[in-house]
Specification:
- The chain is mostly helical.
- The protein has one domain.
- It has 3 helices and no strands.
- Helix 2 packs antiparallel against helix 3.
- The two termini are 25 Å apart.
- The relative contact order is 0.14.
Length: 77
C-alpha cells in the first residue's frame, strides 16, 4: 500500500484544497450512481449493485489508508 500524503502536501493549502475537492467529487459520483441504481428498480439493482458495492468497499479502504491519516495529522482529535 502507498504511504499517506507527505508532510509538504499535507500543509500546502492549494494541494489540500485539491484533495478536498476530489473527495467531494468522488462522493457525489457515488451518490449519483446509487440513486441511478435505485431509480432503475430491480433489473438495474440486479445488474449493477454488486459492482457498485465493490467500488464503494475499495473506496472506503483507500480512504482509511490514504485520506484519513493525513487529515488526522492536520487536525488531531
Amino acid at each position: 500500500m502507498s504511504q499517506p500524503a507527505d508532510d509538504q502536501a499535507m500543509h500546502d493549502p492549494d494541494k489540500y484544497a485539491a484533495v478536498a475537492d476530489n473527495f467531494v467529487y468522488v462522493h457525489r459520483a457515488l451518490r449519483r450512481d446509487l440513486a441511478r441504481i435505485i431509480a432503475g428498480g430491480e433489473p438495474l439493482f440486479a445488474s449493477d449493485f454488486a459492482r457498485f458495492a465493490r467500488i464503494l468497499e475499495k473506496h472506503s479502504e483507500l480512504e482509511d489508508v490514504l485520506f484519513f491519516p493525513p487529515l488526522e495529522q492536520r487536525a488531531p482529535g
